[in-house]
Amino acid sequence: MLYTVTAAAAAVTMATGPATAGPQTVHEWLTQPGVTTPTDAQLSWQSPAASGATTVRLDPGVKFQSVSGFGAAITDSAAHVLYGLAPAARDEVMKNLFDPRAGAGISFLRQPIGASDFAVGQDYSFDDVPAGQTDYSLRHFSIAHDEAQILPLVRQAEKLNPKLQIVASPWSMPGWMKTGGSMIDGKLIDSPQIYRAYAAYLVKFLQAYQKAGVHVDYLTVQNEPQALERKNYPGTDLPWQQEAKVIEALGPAIRAAGLDTKILGFDHNWTEHPGDIASHQRAGEDPQPEYPYDLLATNAAKWMAGTAYHCYYGSPDAQTPLKASYPGKDVFMTECEGGDSSTIIGVMQNWGRSSIDWNIALDENHGPHLGGCGTCNGTVTVNSQTRAVTYNDQYRDIEHFSKFVPPGAVHIAASVVYTSGTSTPIQAVAFTNPDRSTALVALNTAKTAQTFTVVSGDRSFDATVPAGATVTFHWSGR
Questions:
Q1: pLDDT surpasses 60 at 14
Q2: If DSSP codes are grouped into helix, strand and coil, which group holds residue 1?
Q3: Are residues 275 and 418 in the same domain?
Q4: For residues 63 and 369, what is the distance between their CA atoms, to the nearest angstrom?
C-alpha cells in the first residue's frame, strides 16, 4: 500500500482531517492494500444491539493500560533526508506526520543519543575525544550535532502535536568508556567510575535537550544490549548485570538533577534472536535469554518505570507474562521497522503503552546508513533525485492509531466471537479516549471480505471490511 505524491501535492491529498462522528453515528476510517486513499464514511447505530456470525463486543468497564503514543524516530539519516526538501515541502511532510487533524498525529518519537546505524557519514557521541584520552568531567560534551537538523525537526513536531512524547536511546556510550575504545562493538568498562561517568553523560544529555526546548519523557541506557558482532555501526554488548549498575547510578543522578525522565530497561526483542544467542556462545558468554526478568529482579528495578521491547524476534505475547510478573512496571514497544497494523494490535493487546516504527524518513536507497539494515523503509521515502515523497505502509498503519487514540487513552476489553467456527480472521483492539470517545481498530487477515457486528452497550453496528484491510471506528461516548 504505497502512494507517492510531491510534497506540495500532499496538502491536497492528505491534509483533510477525518469527519467527526455525531452522537448517533460511527466514523469509519478504512485503508486497504493497493488503494491509495482511505475510505472515510459514517455508519449508523442499531438499538437494541444485535449479534452477527462474527461479533466484536466491547466492555469499557474492563480496563488495561493507558496509551503513551504511536510514532517513529527522527534519526540523523531521517533529518538529513527531510532537510533535502525545500522548506515549504518539508513543512507539508511534517504536518502530514504530526498534525492530529490535518495528518497522522504521530504522538511518540524515539530519538537516538548520538549515532545509530542510521547516521550520515560517521559515528559520533556527544563527548568524543582523541583515542587514548578520557573526559570524566564531560568538559567536551556538546549536542551541537543535533542542533543542526534533528532538534529543529523535533521542536517542529512538538509544536504540531503538543502531546508528543519522547523516548531517547543510545546505541553506544562514548568510545572512551568502552573496553575497545570505540563506539563500535565492545563492552562498557566494568568500573564504578565509568558507571558514574556514563550516568552523568546521560543526565547531561537530558539537561541539554531540556535547555534546547525538548523534554525527554523516557530513557533507555542501551539499544539492543544483546546484539554482538556489529562491525560497522555503534553498538555495545551490555549484560543485564552491567545495565543494572548503570541504572543504579543513573536513577539517583536523574533525581538529583531535578528531572522527571523515567528509565526503561532492556530495549531489545521479545525473544532473544538465534543469531544473538550464537554470537554469545562463540564469545563464551551466557546468552541471558531472561534478560528483562533478570534486570527487574535487581535493586535497579526501583529506578525503572518498565521495559522496552523490539519486534524483530518473538511475539508480542511475551509482554503479558512480564507484566504479570511485575504488574507495577509498564511495557513499551520502542522499535519495530516493518511492523504493520497486526503488530500494533498485538502490542496493544499485550499491555504495550507505545508502538514505534524506526526511521520516520529515508531515501529511495533505504538510507543513508552506516551499516546494518540495507532494506529498511522509512515511514516516508524522499527520493533524493526528484524530491517526490512516498508515504509507505507504515504511515497508514500508524495513522490508524495515532489519529484516533491520543496519549492518555485507555485500552479496554474487545472480544471477537466467531460463531461459525473456532477461529476468526478479525483482529481487534479498543480504547476509551480522554474526551470519552471510543476507538476500535480492526484488521481483516482473511483473503476475502468479512462482515461483522460491533456491540457496545445496548447498541451495535455492522461493518464489511475488504480482504487485508485495516479499519478504525470512532464514536462519541461509550
A1: no
A2: coil
A3: no
A4: 41
Is the domain of 287 the same as that of 424?
no
Residue 435, domain extent? 24-66+409-475
206 backbone dihedrals φ, ψ, rounded to 5°:
-60, -40
Q: Hey, what's the cell of 315? A: 511475539
b/e map of 319-352 (b: 16 or more CB within 10 Å)?
beebbeebeebbbbbbbbbebebebbbbbbbbbb
Confidence class of residue 24 from pLDDT cuts 50, 70 and 90? confident
In 3D space, the residue among 88, 4, 80, 37 whose CA is nearest the CA of residue 391 turns out to be 4
Residue 307's beta-bridge partner residues? 265, 331
Which of residues 376, 402, 428 is at a domain's end?
A: 402
What whole-number distance in Å separates Cα of residue 154 and Cα of residue 143?
Answer: 14
225-254 pLDDT per residue, tens: 999 877 899 999 999 999 999 999 999 999
User: Are 393 and 340 a contacting pair, CB within 8 Å?
Assistant: yes
Cβ–Cβ under 8 Å, residues 261 and 206: yes
**Residues 35, 27: Cα–Cα separation, whole Å:** 19
- The amino acid present at 220, given as its one-letter code, is T
DSSP string, 70-124: EEEE--HHHHHHHTTS-HHHHHHHHHHHH-TTTS----EEEEESS--SS-SSS--
pTM: 0.94
Which of 384, 402, 420 is the last residue before a domain boundary? 402
Q: What is the pLDDT of residue 4?
A: 34
